[in-house]
Amino acid sequence: MAMSGGSDDGEPMMEMNMTPLIDVLLVLLIMFIITIPIQTHAVKVDLPVNDPNAKQQAVDPQKNKVTIDPTGTVSWNGSPVDTVTLQQYLEQTTQINPEPELHFQPNPQARYAKVDEVLAVIKRSGVAKLGFIGNEQYRNDF
Fold this sequence. Notes:
The protein is of the alpha/beta class. It has helices spanning 19-35, 83-95, 112-125; strands at 63-68, 74-76, 79-81, 101-106, 130-132.
């Protein structure tokens, strides 16, 4: 069963019609793009912006430090706390004028879920001065 090229010479057609194949591939591509899940989970934290024109304000010498060890234990200035106690401490620091800095230092081996949970607690408490400690090693990577 041969395909004719439009003339009645009886020879098979040497070209294949690619239009239907391209149409099917475009429909498949669009379907794959639509079915890819959108990554919407994020904890938004307003980080301080370096402004060279702004004068340095007097900083309270008291600095609080929140750490997370590899086992998932959250510590406030070296003593282990739960999330409710952490929330209370953070709310107390926001009442101090000027507000003390909060240094956040998760261990690189800590689970992301625990770090995300603590960041959400910090965000809900309304802390204005937040610094990430331990990221200096990645300064020139980007």
